[in-house]
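Researcher: Structure for this, please.
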Amino acid sequence: MAYTIKQAGLGNKERQLIDSIVGSGKTIIHGSQLQQEFGYSNAAANLMLSRLHKKGWLQRLKAGVYRIVPLGSDSANPIPEDAWAIAMEMFAPAYIGGWTAAEHWDLTEQIFNTTVVFSAHKQKSTNQSVIGLSFKIKFLKQQHLFGTTKIWSENTPIQLSDIHRTLIDVLDDPAIGGGGRSMVDIFIAYNHKKEADPEILWQYARQLDNGGIFKRLGFLAQRILKAPVDYLEKIQTECKTGIVLLDPQGPRTGPIIKKWGIRINIPLADIA
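Model: Predicted structure, token format:
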């Protein structure tokens, strides 16, 4: 392994540790890994990571979690490209979803610089910046971590919402899909996919059991999917009393569709 001048200054133990980590293909390391894999005590692991951080070999993500600075990097704090892998380490148990997953599944043409993460670990802030990367974190209960698929990035397994869960999450909270109009566009794009399956949408909605999802799903399934009557009827049985906004961030004006208990606060012309 060749080292640049900026990456010199390692002791034998430090060099062996870096060589071992890099050789394993890992990019992110925890203090607990040093204890389990290399026999370090908790104090010795934290001291080793802190020293490597000060020498420019590691970037600190949060307490006890570091990212290896790529060999030959011009900076000790480069902005990484593996945002998804970092999210998996930072916010686990979690999955990538919302507009980020919608981009992956080709459900939206919008470009977002912030990665949406659904996490079962409560965060102090829903919007976080980590070494130049922006994350929007939405909390959900552990039992709601379903409807995901595994892909790989930088030798890290990534949990990503599948195409159906992506749509259901956007129906639950249109803001994480880019807003009400974007939600409609995502719904239309989903309808044109060969994977589109209204029954799976129904099953996922039942698992989440949120009245707002049923109301938005029912209205859009009727208008866009042209769903059969029996499908619409079973959705309607799950719609509770009260009125929700099609776009929660939009104005509290517009016609109310009593059948679905929803106020249409974006132009109907925008809904195919």
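Researcher: Any notable elements?
Model: The chain is about 40% helix and 20% strand. The two ends are 58 Å apart (CA to CA).
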